[in-house]
Write a structure and sequence with these properties.
Largest sheet: 4 strands, mixed
Helix content: 40-55%
Order of helices and strands: HHHHHHHEEEEEEEEHEEHHHH
CATH class of the largest domain: Mainly Alpha
Strand content: 5-15%
Strand order of the largest sheet: 1-4-5-8
Oligomer: single chain
Bound molecules: flavin-adenine dinucleotide
Number of helices: 12
Number of strands: 10
Radius of gyration: 21 Å
CATH topology of the largest domain: Butyryl-CoA Dehydrogenase, subunit A, domain 3
Length: about 375
């Protein structure tokens, strides 16, 4: 991924947006346990930031995925993984399958307003009994004439208390669990839908996460994305953008964690000298910075592969795995050097420590990524995965 002047211009726009439209409001939104997604997304839509990689026919900018990575990365200047996660859901988790495989009608109805920022979206895959094991979801869409009637429950759904629609994985048949599912767009205000209360989480406090209940919800069949029975495959493809987004979005959070720690340790006097003036700190921080740059290189390489139309599953899974583990290491190591201050709630490093813990769990836990990587290496027999 070679950064051109156009990438730099986009990076500046995203940085400015993050620092003026998100960062000043974070404390307020964290306390409220929610951020105004419609308001923030509309402003992003006006700047063209929600459809960077999407087709101009639907309001997108039609740029390649390297510009999507520039967006994810530079959103880090917002200092809020809660808001960044919500944006990632909109750009890289709930809409990629719709953009690539949705019908013309569906794209006009749901993709266009997602790009302008008028609609807020959710991706609804996980269930109480099916997180890592996506294939075992139970939500069922029964055919009834031109409609589906949907019953079931989704769990942990980001943006769900504010969403206008959910891109939902459901069972539409009885056959093999990889061939009996479909992705269906379900408008959030339909009769029979209840969104439960916000879940009280360790981090990402300003991002709303809630369960969704479907009780005989009638949805037209034309709201299905792609062919019936192809939902599992489409969701696995959609996960690749999610994983690239997650890996890229962690980079600036880690850079800042290290920078802020250097600044703090430089001015903190201990035993008559600056805390930073201990070689053990220099070396540890240098080691971590090297790791961050390695992740950046891996993520950019995965992005190049994706742009070339190659299957990016192997590298995207590695980047997601490495990103989740590295941000835990960076935030934990930095927190240590802040001493008691690192253990306080309103501290950048402790916030990253809490917020980014999810990166090793959501969108496929570390162990799920390892399983995929093993499969790519040919070290596991296929049937054991
Ligand atoms: C804040 C938040 C936001 C989320 N947002 C969304 C969303 O918008 N949409 C959505 O669909 N889902 C969302 N999720 C759900 C998330 O994707 C799941 O939590 C995740 O996939 C893990 O599923 P689980 O929680 O059911 O854990 P489980 O599947 O019960 O797994 C528990 C643990 O088991 C371990 N494990 C898993 N597989 C293996 C294995 N093969 N071998 C060894 N160990 C293993 C892992 O360590 C894993 O963390 C969100 C979750 C959270 C917490």
């Amino acid at each position: 991924m070679r950064l051109t002047n156009e990438h730099k211009e986009l990076a500046d726009t995203v940085k400015k947006f993050s620092e003026t439209e998100i960062l000043p409001f974070i404390d307020e939104w964290e306390k409220a346990g929610i951020f105004p997604a419609h308001e923030v997304f509309k402003k992003m839509g006006d700047l063209g930031l929600l459809g960077i990689t999407k087709d101009p026919k639907y309001g997108g900018l039609g740029l390649d995925y390297s510009y999507g990575v520039t967006l994810s990365e530079n959103l880090g200047y917002s200092e809020s993984m809660g808001v960044v996660t919500a944006i990632g859901v909109q750009t890289d988790m709930a809409t990629p399958a719709l953009a690539r495989f949705g019908s013309e009608e569906l794209k006009k109805e749901f993709l266009v307003p997602s790009i302008t920022g008028e609609y807020v979206s959710s991706i609804a895959v996980s269930e109480p009994g099916a997180g890592s094991d996506v294939a075992s979801i139970k939500t069922y869409a029964k055919k009834d004439g031109d409609d589906y009637i949907i019953n079931g429950q989704k769990m942990w759904i980001t943006n769900s208390t504010q969403a206008d629609y959910f891109c939902t994985l459901v069972n539409t048949g009885e056959g093999h669990h990889h061939k009996n599912k479909s992705l269906i767009i379900i408008p959030s205000k339909l009769p029979g839908i209840t969104v439960g209360g916000k879940i009280d989480k360790l981090g990402l406090r300003c991002s709303d996460t809630a369960p969704i209940f479907f009780d005989n919800v009638r949805v037209p069949k034309r709201y299905r994305i792609g062919d019936e029975g192809k939902g599992f495959t489409l969701q696995m493809k959609q996960f690749q953008e999610e994983r690239l987004f997650v890996a890229a979005s962690l980079l600036i959070f880690m850079d800042k964690c290290l920078e802020k720690t250097v600044e703090y340790c430089r001015q903190r006097m201990i035993f008559g000298k600056s805390l930073l003036d201990n070689q053990v700190l220099h070396f540890r921080l240098a080691e971590l910075k090297t790791e961050v740059e390695s992740l950046r290189a891996l993520t950019y390489r995965a992005c190049d592969q994706y742009i070339n139309g190659e299957d990016v599953t192997f590298l995207a899974s590695m980047a997601k795995l490495k990103g989740g583990r590295l941000i835990r290491e960076v935030s934990d190591s930095c927190l240590q050097y802040w001493g008691g201050m690192g253990f306080t709630w309103n501290n950048y490093v402790s916030k990253i420590y809490r917020d980014c813990r999810l990166a090793s769990i959501g969108g496929g836990a570390d162990e799920v990524m390892l399983g995929i990587i093993c499969k790519g290496m040919g070290t596991f027999p296929k049937e054991s995965l």
